[in-house]
Amino acid sequence: MIIDVHGHYTTAPPQLAEWRRRQIASAGTPFTDKLSISDDEIRHTVGDGQLRLQKERGTDVTFFSPTAGGMAHHYGDETTSQQWTRTVNDLIHRVCTLFPGNFVGVCQLPQSPGVSPANCVQELERCVEEYGFVGCNLNPDPSDGYWTGPPLTDRFWYPLYEKMVELEVPAMIHVSMSCNPNFHGTGAHYLNGDTSAFMQLVLGDLFRDFPTLKFVIPHGGGAVPYHWGRYRGIAQDAHRPPIDELLNNVFFDTCVYHYAGVRLLVEVVGADNVIFASEMIGAVRGVDSRTGHYFDDTKRYVDAIPDLSETEQAKIYEGNARRVYPRLSRVLAALPR
Ligand SMILES: [Zn+2]
Predict the structure, then answer these.
(1) Nearest alpha-carbon partner for 219 in 188, 247, 245
(2) Distance 161 CA to ligand 1 centre (A)
(3) Mapping DSSP to helix (H, G, I), strand (E, B) and coil, where does residue 308 land?
(4) Fewer CB atoms inside 10 Å of the end CB: C or N, the chain?
């Protein structure tokens, strides 16, 4: 089985963006507009998008979450974020219900700048316990480009981590849009987010307090694998534990859109810590003019690694996802055959 742990509903019908635009415009006042999207519209937008690509590329299950750039936690206030988050998570649940077995839910969290992530606990619980979601996307920068909050290792985040551990739900550390013109969203802010999150973990003692907490750093970990020696050296100079210890809790996905990058990632962090993902349909949607294949068809890069054993490949495609997301096997086992 090939499990893709990183997919977004970027093809949602336009009513969603229109609803969101009206919601943002009305921030601070009660907003009661109903979002109206039919099952057929969902079938069409997914069937012609993510489901088609899943079949064409030969993958089996895709973790599905709301559009990451659309989380946009800085808009409005906490109430705005709560309402938006419930709305998009409900939509993800509908996709997973209409295509059982093809898509498994991962939720957005109702974060808001300066607000304790304790406010995310209820929504996480709802999505996991009522909807059968297996993970969440955690935005390390709810200010969307200005990094005004505390690092992920700060006790500020602990109420959410406590619930994640209790529910056995890992988080993908995933920033949202960038309001800062210095940082292009998917080209800079995303990779900054991945890299900064890892560096915070190097300097903090988070996993001493939460030994079973698990994070997936997407987009191949940003600069992390390429600069592994730098991080090892910084940790050593700072009398920190060897960074390899983080590999008990931190995993990296394969959303790196060229072969050399994926090969390097596997070589540096090892097959036990790489989880297959494509982020379809996401940041890079085009066909590589050199190869004639989609940039985000990441299975091609994993398949091309010559010295990867069958066992290692099975870990990347399936075993690691089941290990890091323990609820997944239960969700798949409960599906009607
Ligand atoms: Zn993503």
Answers:
(1) 188
(2) 21
(3) coil
(4) C
**What gap in Å lies between CA 325 and CA 308, rounded to an integer?**
23
Integer CA distances (angstroms), 198 to 59, 65, 131, 248, in order: 28, 22, 30, 13
Beta carbons of 271 and 312 less than 8 angstroms apart: yes
Neighbours of 276 (CB within 10 A): 24
Gap from CA of 230 to ligand 1 centroid (Å): 26
Going from the N-terminus, what domains does the chain have, and what CATH number goes with each?
3-333 (3.20.20.140)
**From its phi and psi, is residue 132 left (phi > 0), alpha (psi between -120 and 50) or beta?**
left
Which pTM value belongs to this model? 0.97
| pLDDT, tens digit, 9 for 90 and up, residues 268-324 | 999 999 999 999 998 899 999 999 999 999 999 999 999 999 999 999 999 999 999
Three-state secondary structure string covering 170-224: CEEECCCCCCCCCCCHHHHHHHHHHHHHHHHHHHCCHHHHCCCCCEEECHHHCCC
Q: Is the Cβ–Cβ distance between 115 and 78 less than 8 Å? A: yes
Rounded distance from Cα 174 to ligand 1 centre (Å): 7
pLDDT 10s digits, 205-254: 999 999 999 999 999 999 999 999 999 999 999 999 999 999 999 999 99
Identify whether 281 is preceded by a cis peptide bond (ω within 30 of 0).
yes
Would you call 5 helix, strand, or coil by DSSP?
A: strand
Instruction: Say how many Å lie between the CA of residue 264 and the centre of ligand 1.
Output: 21
Residues within 5 Å of ion ligand 1, judged at the Cβ atom: 68, 279
Report the separation in Å between the CA atom of 6 and the middle of ligand 1, taken as the mean of its atom positions. 6
- Are the CB atoms for 232 and 198 separated by under 8 Å? no
Distance CA 104, CA 218 (A): 17
- Residue 310 catalytic? no
Catalytic residue of the set 125, 162, 267, 279: 279
